[in-house]
Amino acid sequence: MPTVTFKNLKNKKIVVPEGSNLRREAHKNGIPMHSGVHQYLNCHGNGMCGSCRVIVKSGSEHLKRKTWWEKILLLLNPMWLFARIGHEQDMTLACQTRVNGDCEIESTPPMNWSGEEFWV
């Protein structure tokens, strides 16, 4: 069974069934997938709000590819634009991600409000 390692949570590891939903398995194991007000106001895994965004540090080949809806949501949502800067290829939504092998994830990544990588 695949192991998901959460790098920003002191390398906490959870073992999940193959093909399982990343957001659902994280919640089952008490791992926060939402920050701030989004802990209460989110789409509950329907892929509409983008608040369960994660950064895939390694093992992206073991995750389901991004859907066109996910790409559009992460690209056009003005709120998540600042989270995407510098992570265009490795940011994904946990609610839309199926785990098929070992991977390393950073949950609830910070916003890039200062624009450090905006002009890179």
Key words describing this protein structure:
120 residues, globular, 5-stranded mixed β-sheet, Beta-grasp_dom_sf, Ubiquitin-like (UB roll), alpha+beta, iron-sulfur cluster binding, 19% helix, 22% strand, two-stranded antiparallel sheet, single chain, 2Fe-2S ferredoxin-5, 2Fe-2S_ferredoxin-like_sf
What is the helix content? 10-25%
- Helix/strand-derived class? alpha+beta
Instruction: Supply the number of structural domains.
Output: 1
**Strand and helix order:** EEEHEHHEEE
CATH topology: Ubiquitin-like (UB roll)
Count helical runs.
Answer: 3
Please identify, by name, the CATH architecture.
Roll
How is the quaternary structure best described?
A: single chain
Could you explain the architecture of this structure?
Helix 2 packs across helix 3. 19% of the residues lie in helices and 22% in strands. Strand 1 and strand 2 form a beta hairpin. The mean pLDDT is 85. The chain has a five-stranded mixed sheet with strand order 2-1-7-4-5. Strands 3-6 form a two-stranded antiparallel sheet. It has 120 residues and is α+β, with helices and mostly antiparallel strands. The chain has a single domain, classed as Ubiquitin-like (UB roll).
